[in-house]
Amino acid sequence: MSMNWDDLRVFLAVARTESLSGAGRQLKIDPATVGRRIARLEEGLGVSLFAKSPQGYELTRDGGRLLAHAEAAEQAVSLGQDDLSGDGDERLKGVIRIGAPDGCANYVLPRVMARIAEDHPDLEMQIIAQPRLFNMSKREVDLFVSVSPPTSGRLLVQKITDYHLSLAAMRWYLEQHAEIAGLGDLQEHKLVGYVSDLIFDKELDYLEETGASEADYTSNSVSVQLNMIRAGLGLGVVHDFCLPFVPEMIRVLPQELRLKRAFYLVRHADDRKVERLSRFADVFCRRMRDEVDKLEREA
User: Fold this and answer.
1) 242: closest CA among 253, 227, 231?
2) How do residues 197-250 score in pLDDT, each as one tens digit?
3) Among positive and negative, which fits the CA dihedral 169, 171, 173, 175?
4) Do the domains 5-85 and 94-159+262-298 sit in the same CATH topology, yes or no?
5) Closest Cα partner for 70 from 51, 98, 48, 49?
6) HEC profile for 164-193?
7) Global pTM value
8) 84 or 265: which carries more pLDDT confidence?
9) Highest mean pLDDT range out of 16-20, 135-139, 201-205, 286-290?
10) N or C: which end of the chain has fewer CB within 10 A?
């Protein structure tokens, strides 16, 4: 049987989403059509590519063997598109999906996207904000921003920039509650932070550096934590790049507690030769550095 790219594209979508409905949403076709396409592919090859389980569609041994060839075909198609679009127009086009932790996604990336869009108006950028790590083998995103460099997997990792975090509270909250002259005074106040068992990266565990063992009000979302502090529930560790968005929120004990972390850009190793993604990564990192620096100076 001769396989065409459309069949392999459907196969890849099911392999990565582990469901017909997920693949259908990704490809914008009906799940029943996805099922028929997979059945036709299996019939033509004379093997079973997926095993249905309570968790979804799992690759069989033959499916795993086909996956490597399908991903190679995907890369070849991408490289071919890059080559054919190299017509002297330096502007980026098409769709690029970026994953990021929600703090970065909410407060930095929209500004970054706006700057990139000025020079590349035909580029469609999608931001996926998730308080977790992304699975590049399933191609959930084209690239993602991480707060620590991954140490496993076939990935390309480059540092984007350092950023800072500070203990912060609303000005009116500080005027109405006990004075804070040192970290020891924090025991008289409520703290806002992450849900401890939902911290997906060790770099997000800030509480130890405040001297507190646990937070009183918690969320897995940076944006929710920021709004908890804004509502006067207590103090919390806040990204400096968030502070310009809440003018009445101010740093507390800035000389005693200011944390430094870093953002990293992560891509699949197979995308090393995809010129469009490499160009985007360069532009993206430059704009990220500019925007983080600008927001921190405004804080």
Assistant:
1) 227
2) 888 778 888 887 888 878 999 999 999 999 999 999 999 999 999 999 998 999
3) positive
4) no
5) 49
6) EEEEEEEHHHHHHCCCCCCHHHHHHCCEEE
7) 0.72
8) 265
9) 286-290
10) N
Mean model confidence pLDDT for the chain: 87
Q: Quick count: other Cβ atoms within 10 Å of Cβ 6?
A: 10
Tell me the domain boundaries of the chain: 5-85, 94-159+262-298, 162-261
Output the six-digit token pair for 179: 């004075």
- The set of residues, in sequence order, having a beta carbon less than 8 Å from that of 57 and lying 6+ positions away, is 14, 15, 18, 19, 20, 50, 51
194: CB partners within 8 A, 6+ apart? 204, 205, 206, 207, 215, 218, 219, 220, 225
Q: Which CATH class is domain 162-261?
A: alpha beta
Domain 94-159+262-298 belongs to what topology? D-Maltodextrin-Binding Protein; domain 2 (3.40.190)
CATH of 5-85, picked from 2.40.50.180, 3.40.50.300, 1.10.10.10, 3.40.50.200, is: 1.10.10.10
Please name the residue ranges forming H helices in the chain.
Answer: 5-17, 20-27, 31-45, 61-85, 102-107, 109-119, 171-176, 222-230, 275-298
**Residues found in the chain:** 299
